[in-house]
Predict the 3D structure of the following.
Amino acid sequence: MESDVAQTLPRIGEPAPDFEANSTAGTIRLSQFRGKWVMLFSHPADFTPVCTTEISEFARRNEEFVRRNVQLLGLSVDGVPSHIGWTRDIAGLTGRPVPFPIISDLDMHVSRLYGMLHPGESNTATVRSVFFIDDKGVVRALIYYPLSTGRNVDELLRVFDALQLTSRHGVSTPVDWQPGQPVVVPAPATTEAVLDREQAEAQGLDYRTWYLRLKQVDPNS
């Protein structure tokens, strides 16, 4: 199993493997969400403490993902009846329904397809993986967490903001970047393309050195 997971792990810049699966929203295919960005994430098991805090928070902040054209898709190896019972329990605890599908992966097909099973952590439970998939169905980023560590929703949203901004403007985001802060412009690829400080500043760039220049962009453009 371990070698199978390693061989099928999707990589950044590659198409996200399509699949069809049962979920709390009925039968779904990943490809049906083309045109939206997708956050495909796994959790170890229903009716567990850390997972409950995560699903509750994802539900509470779902509209923040929707505003970014992001569809949330949860997954674990539990069945649909378990997912339904658990999400109803969460709604009772928080007063808020879970508005996104949770995939049932009883046969572990999707878990293996996406490398979500790590035998060093568990042979039967998925680790906390996150796949950031763009609106063309391409994997743009991925993050893995152990079973014991809950995810940070602010960071997940920040990654989507960075990926979407760089897609629109062809720039990069520096360390600790937050929306509205300056971004990095591509480094010159030839000697002729190198700008000195005066030239760079005339173009509205914040010149740090010849290969590190920043600029302000409208995050909503």
